Amino acid sequence: xxxxxxxxxxxxxxxxxxxxxxxxxxxxxxxxxxxxxxxxxxxxxxxxxxxxxxxxxxxxxxxxxxxxxxxxxxxxxxxxxxxxxxxxxxxxxxxxxxxxxxxxxxxxxxxxxxxxxxxxxxxxxxxxxxxxxxxxxxxxxxxxxxxxxxxxxxxxxxxxxxxxxxxxxxxxxxxxxxxxxxxxxxxxxxxxxxxxxxxxxxxxxxxxxxxxxxxxxxxxxxxxxxxxxxxxxxxxxxxxxxxxxxxxx
Amino acid sequence: xxxxxxxxxxxxxxxxxxxxxxxxxxxxxxxxxxxxxxxxxxxxxxxxxxxxxxxxxxxxxxxxxxxxxxxxxxxxxxxxxxxxxxxxxxxxxxxxxxxxxxxxxxxxxxxxxxxxxxxxxxxxxxxxxxxxxxxxxxxxxxxxxxxxxxxxxxxxxxxxxxxxxxxxxxxxxxxxxxxxxxxxxxxxxxxxxxxxxxxxxxxxxxxxxxxxxxxxxxxxxxxxxxxxxxxxxxxxxxxxxxxxxxxxx
DNA sequence: ACCCTATTGTCTCATTTTGTTACATTAATA
DNA sequence: TATTAATGTAACAAAATGAGACAATAGGGT
Lengths: 249, 249
What we know:
By secondary structure, chain A is an alpha+beta fold.
C-alpha cells in the first residue's frame, strides 16, 4: 500500500534538513507545517541528504517537491546538533502509522543533525502538496502554530530572529510579495516580520529614498479614497541559494 | 610512534566542525592556523563529533584541547555542505605523512559536512598547542594568511562577514580584549574587524553614550601625553555557546 | 623649572536622519 | 456635489552623526 521507506544506501546517515517556509497573505506572516497521518504530529517540512548531493541542493529539492516552486529564496541559517534533539520514539511512531515495519536498527531511528533553511515565497503561487508520509500540509500564522514535534518550535523561533535581522539586507519584501504591490502592503510585510507597527509616513519616505522601488500605475481597488500607486523592486535580485549568499554577502 | 588514528566507532561519520579562532594583539586581527607535519598544508583547527556528544560540545572540546581555554565566546555561524568540498586525496596525504596506514575505505576519506564556529579570545591568555597530526599552530593576520587547504579560506571569509555583522550586537570587544582597556584599543578592535578607519571623537562619543563602559583609573603608559582612562564593560556578558545564543538573541 | 609634543576628553556647530504633524489630493459613494 | 477615508508629500522638531576646535596633561628635552 505504501512506498518503501527511505533506504540507508541512498542517504547520508545522521544528517537531515528542515525548512521554515514563509509566506505572506497580505496581513499575516505564515509558514508551512505538515501533519503526519494518524499521529497528530506536526512538523516542519524536511528530508534527508543524498550521498552525492550538496546539502543546499537537498533543501532545494525538498522545497520543489512540496511546493512545485523552483526559483525561490532559500538560505541556510542554523544547524541543530544537540544529541537530545533526536527522538527515535517519535520517528518510529510516524513510520509505523504509515504501515512500515521498523527494525530496531533502522537508520532513521538514529541520532540526526539538522541543517535548517528558511524560504520566502509568494503565498499566492503556492499549492502545497503532501508527501507520502503526511496527510496534509498547510499554512499557519507564525504566532498561532500547532504544537510542533521535537525541537521544531525552536527552529521556527530562530528562523524568525534571523529573518528580522536580515529584513533590510535581504530585500525580504521582494521575495514575499507579488511583482507589483502597494506601499501599504509592503509596510504590512515589515510589520508582520518585526511584530510591531510602523509609522506610515516615515516608512514611505524611507522606502522611497532607498531608491529600490519603481513606481507604476495606480491601483483602483474600489475603495472610497485616493488610489495608491503600485510599486515593484528596481533590480531583480538574483534568487539566492545559501552558497550564493556566502559570496554575495 | 604515533597514536591510533580516530576510530570509526567513536565518531559520527560525515560530520566535522572547523573553528575560526580570532584574537587581537593590539593592532591586528589574527586567527589560529595549524600546519600539518611534512605536508605544507595549512588548515583551520577542527575535529570530529562523538556519537553521543552535542555538536557545540565538540567544538568547545576542540577549542579547549588547542588553547586550554574553557569559558570563551564560541558561536556556530554556518554549515558547509557541498559535496565537492571533501578532498579524500588531501586527507590521505595528511594521514600518511603521519605514518598511518590508510585503507581505501577509511571513514575519514569519506565525504564530510563541516559545521563552522567562530571564537573570540583574549590573545594574551593563549598558548596554542599542536595536536598529534600538526606540527605547529600559530597566529596569522586575517589579511595575510597562508594558502589554506580545501575550502578553509572561504570559511574564514564567511566568519569575517558574520563577525562584522555581529560587531555591535555581540559586544565583540569584550571577548577580544583584556578586562581593562583604553578607548584607543577598543577603537582599534573595531577598525581591525571592519577594515576601515573610524573617527576618534565620534567613536568615543558613541561608545560612551551606549552606557556599556565603566571608567577606571588612568593608564600611565610612559608616553609624553595626557594619559587615557581605562575602561571595562559594565555587565559581564555570559559566555555564549551557540545554543545559548538562540535563546538570548 | 619651563617649554614642547603627542594624545586625550569634551565641546560646538553643521549636516543628515528620523519622528511627528499637517494638509492638500482623490476615488468611490450617497 | 458634498462626504469619506486613504494617500502622497511637505514642513518642522528632535535626534543622531560628521567634522573640527580646543583646553588639559604626561612625559621628554633643554
